[in-house]
Design goal:
By secondary structure, the protein is α/β, with parallel strands linked by helices. 14% of the residues lie in helices and 14% in strands.
Length: 209
């Protein structure tokens, strides 16, 4: 910074000295010297005479180990290709008894579905007084009021339920028949009147039981 000409000479000298001192101070901060560094030392050899041998006062015995014989192996050895399996758990004493749930025998329930018979027939006056193959019509044999059905293979007494046009009647196999191909049930006169189906034809539903 220039110094004005009207300033006294002694003051001008002081300002010059102050500017030089300030410049030197800035230079010492901006350009630091080497700190904490030193040249590497030259490697030196150690004098063997500086060491002294000390005796421990104990005897040392040497021993050798025989080489392993691969033919002598433990029972629990594991071959190189053998799989590793977890050992079985060891039980300490008998296991505690467990409470067994109550077991009940299952009963099979057979539910017979309704089936349609389109060729059912009936038999009547010509067989009145006949005892029937099952002997279930009483002492006087078949009568017009007896309700029953004839079948070729179902056991005597088998329960059969018939349904026709809103009416349902439960009866039993009391006779054998019919003896016409394609028919499986032959109703008594009492059964056909109870169902309002005293003709040969279809529309009657039945189920066993």
């Amino acid at each position: 910074m220039p110094i004005p000409s009207n300033v006294r000479p002694d003051v001008r000298l002081l300002r010059v000295v102050a500017s030089a001192a300030l410049t030197a101070a800035f230079a010492s901060v901006v350009v630091p010297g080497l700190v904490g560094s030193q040249n590497p030392s030259t490697p030196k050899s150690v004098d063997p005479a500086a060491f002294q041998q000390v005796a421990l006062g104990t005897s040392v015995t040497t021993m050798t180990m025989p080489l392993l014989d691969h033919a002598i192996q433990s029972a629990g050895r594991l071959d190189a290709e053998a799989p590793l399996r977890e050992p079985l758990a060891v039980r300490l004493g008998p296991p505690a008894p467990r409470a067994q749930p109550e077991m009940r025998a299952a009963k099979a329930i057979l539910v017979e579905t309704w089936k349609l018979d389109n060729n059912i027939s009936w038999y009547g006056p010509g067989f009145n007084g006949n005892g029937g193959a099952c002997g279930m019509f009483g002492a006087n044999g078949l009568g017009p009021e007896d309700i029953g059905v004839a079948h070729r293979t179902l056991p005597c007494g088998t329960r059969v339920t018939f349904r026709y046009n809103g009416r349902t009647v439960v009866t039993q196999v009391k006779d054998r028949g019919p003896y016409v191909d394609g028919r499986q049930f032959d109703m008594t006169r009492g059964l056909c009147e109870a169902l309002r189906h005293c003709f040969t034809g279809g529309g009657v539903y039945y189920r066993i039981g």
